[in-house]
Amino acid sequence: MEFNRRQGLAAAGGLAASVALPTGEASAQTRAETLRYVTGNAVNSLDPTVPGSTRESFGVSMNVYDRLAAFGRKRLGDNWVFDHNEIRGELAERIDRSPDGRTFAFHLRPDATWHDGTPVTAEDIKWSLDRCVSARSLAPPQMSTGSITKPEQFRIAGPRTVELMVDRPDRLALSNMCVPYAIMINSTLAKRHATTDDPWALAWLKDNTAASGAYMIEQHRPGTQTILRRNDKWKGGALPNFQRVIVQTVPEVATRANLVERGDADLSIDLQPSDVAALEQRGRVKVVSVPQTNGFTHISMNNTIAPFDDVKVRQAIAAALPYQHMFQASLFSRGRALFGADWTGTPPTADFPQPMPLALNLDRARELLRESGHPNGFSTTFTIGTGTSAWAEPMAALIKESLARINIQVDIRKLPDAQFNTGQAERSLPFYTEGGTAWLPAPDYFFRLYFTRPQRWNFASFNNEELNALTREAQFETDPAKYEAACKRMIGILAAEVPLILVWQPLHEAVMARNVEGYTYWFYRQVDFRDLKRV
Amino acid sequence: MSGTLRHVGWVLRGNPMTAAAAVGASLLLFIAFFAPWLAPYDPIASNVPIALQPPSAAHWAGTDQLGRDVFSRILYGTRVDLAIAFSAVSLSFVIGAVVGSFCGYVGGTLDRVVGRLVDVLMAFPLFVLAMALVAALGNSIENIIIATAFINLPFYIRFARAEVNVRRNLGWVEAARASGDSDISVVLRFLLPNILPAMAVQISLNLGWAILNAAGLSFIGLGITPPTAEWGIMVAEGARFITSGHWWLVAFPGLALMLAVLCFNLLGDGLRDILDPRMRT
Amino acid sequence: MGRRIGVRLLSSVPALFGVLVFTFLLMRVLPGDPAVFFAAGANAGQAEIDMVREQMGLDKPLHEQLVRYLWDITRGNLGNSMTTGQPVRTDLIERLPASLELTFSALLLALTLALPLGVLAALRPGTIVDHFVRFLCTLGVCVPTFVSGLLLIYVFYYLLNWAPDPTGRIDIFAANAPEITGFLLIDFALVRDWSAWRAAAGQLILPASTMALFVLAPLARMTRASMLAVLGSDFVRTAKSLGLSDLRIIVVYALRNALLPVLTISGIVFSTMLGANVLVEKVFSWPGVASYALDALLASDYAPVQGFVLLMATIFVMVNLLIDILYGVADPRATVA
Q1: C73: exposed, middle or buried (C-beta count within 10 Å: 0-12, 13-18, 19+)?
Q2: Whole-complex ipTM
Q3: Distance from CA of C147 to the nearest CA of B (A)
């Protein structure tokens, strides 16, 4: 079934196009069976691999598209969180791994169908996998982190079996089949809309779907709202409870809080910490607070720009930041602090992120500055982005104040997000703050992504030979003891060299109606509507 | 001179509100000059342990997210906001009135060319233009002043041009010309003062608009950079704390902003009454 | 007369052209590389960023981009928005009725309040009534629109629950609106769906009030000023000396003449509101063109901002033309340049 009626209507100079439901059907959907989710950002693409897709687009695609596999979930206290150590089949009924860890066989569910009713075939899967590594999209770089780079690595091994082969056993190969980019597409439908310039139908799939997931797109107005309708023939798991999900963009954060508290909206995950605290206290809504184990907020220094190329200067700054005050003022202490640990040299565990030995010590900072040859301090710029200003502005003000005490003059610069991202990509920001999320939270993945190679996500432009070598080896390390030792060493290097400072992991706070249950914190930091139910 | 003073007194007595506004504006200027002596605390010194305290004897307007004294920040904010308002409006008024008057009086090619340029400028959705300018130039106080002055310019040019256009063939203007005054002299000595009352209304609105513009830019994230105290950014940030019950963060700066804009607007009205030659007996 | 209109129209073309070129250049001057912003996936390296840049056509030299853009405009192609993924023309057509409906309603509301208040103040100049009216109207201008909007939401929706959910134009759970003109009040009236009409009007009240509050002052002030001027003019004095009743003088003679400047200002106010209601649209999640342009501006997404500016400029020019013609007809003293 094609969902491009809106394109036709719009082209005719029509208005807000929607797949109009006959009135009888519309009134049959009761309020209780509908989930209204409000967010400050926009769903701008139905294909998550298209450049420019927002995180909200990823979230919708997890519900609308199936993937071969998915992470499981586990309990963390009262809450559900994702478990990256458990990988279960979604579109694949069973996954076989070869003893040498280099081949994965996916056996498809026999009764799985696409939204238009046609059966899912191995050819569809092969086409989708080829698209992941061949299309000019955001998928290939992600897939390469699991050693998945060429279409030759996929082959159809039977009428309902597809195999993935990697050259060396890579701990992240299978995990990469669970990420938002690894969507399985109805290739017959997609190929109908492919062109010679666009063989993978990137343009068409941005505004239309060719999927098999638990939800179908009922209406899609990019930037305003997207409405999902349950696919009653879904075979990838238990049928979700909510028949209809409205994903609505409400830019004003105070209004989102009002809507949820008044009961007009059922769920929001991007409210301010101050509002969450107040809502929790007033008790009319339910608040699910989960530590974001795979995300962090960092303060980065560009290690290639003087004076931040001097390790003593970086250590001095690390000793001059008012961690506790920043944590209170920016986050209302709603998170997990990554400072204040008391270990030295080697960390106690190989988990990452974990608290680092960072503390405010102005005397030590002054001493380090003197040793580095800047006894009279220096001046620099601290940059924040508009999108993060809710927590970044208080932090910036406190940093400016504290560094002034050791004679470092800080000028605060606030940039719109586009300029901020450009500055970051061009490596022109000397000193700035931002948040980061790693989809696959293996420690070596973290380090490889954020601390090595001259690429966009190496926030501090860090280049350390030992660390580079460690990450290269750890990717294929199968011995758990050796892997742990390598990770601990990586963390130790981070503590000694301080290329950047990990300050905290903000809580992921979902505020919802009291009768909504099942909320799970997923690694991509969006809502999986399939988990939710109204009691 | 004494005639003008007596006239001013008569106007103020007849308009108690204008008098009050004049007092208010003087008070604002006083606060702007003497803020460092009047403020009980340093406006940018943080004190996180006492963050978000409601108004008390120690902190008359409470404390903000970083524990800074809101009252002191409001006092210091007066300087920033008055600087923005006066600079921007003076700039656009002076340039706009002179250019517009000449265009309206002289006509011809000058009028046509300037008219086209003004058309281009006025056709812009102005707030978006201001945003674009600040986004392009960077959000410092100077750039906000320039952007605000720029978007107000066309109003003054057009207004002056229209008013002068209507008057330029009137009797007394002909008389001035006949008695040998040059074009420049006619415009500056006769026409400009005559059109001032109409423009005074515009000025009074603009002074307030300049401050509100800055507040709007802050709301979008293109306003003054932290940690400077400025009413607009205090109101924009404080507005996010209404739901969580910290009302003082938006109430007091909002009140200050509102009162300042009110004073300017009412004062402008009074100014027009004083300057309007038709009301002089 | 017809020739005057034609001349005026023709003389607007350079203005529009100027607007186009100026916006284009301004957008390119904005720091921030949109290609980087949009290539925000994990591990997006330089190759991916270059790919996005090529997709957006940013790798060509500036003058070539300008010529290409102008050529596209003449064929009605306003480019594509990276943030919504749609052609800009589609987005604008979709969203313009929302902004227009809001602005018209706000203007109507403001005029309904401002005209009587202005006339009242002009009839009793210098009295308490005059001062009170002036104070009331001025109060409305003194509060930033986003503050008054948020306060109205807080009081009328959150505390009192009188106003409906302040997001968008219709109740999100309701059936979809008939898509005839895009103006919900007109559409629902045409299909005689009165409960939906009431719902749509309810959604309009808070944002329209927020905007109306803000433009009350110039409208009332102008009404008062021009009314005063007219009441003090020769012909009114003549009418009074001829013994005509006050009411007849006010309504038949004075008001008609006083309305002209109010008309001019209404036109200016309308055009300004249309472009400047970005804050109100943001606060009320109103799916209008201004918030669309703002989102694009902050993302350095050029095409929507250029399209929006062109649209606003065109509307402004048309409104101005209308006013100029009416003014020129009514007041022969003014020349039409």
Answers
A1: middle
A2: 0.78
A3: 7
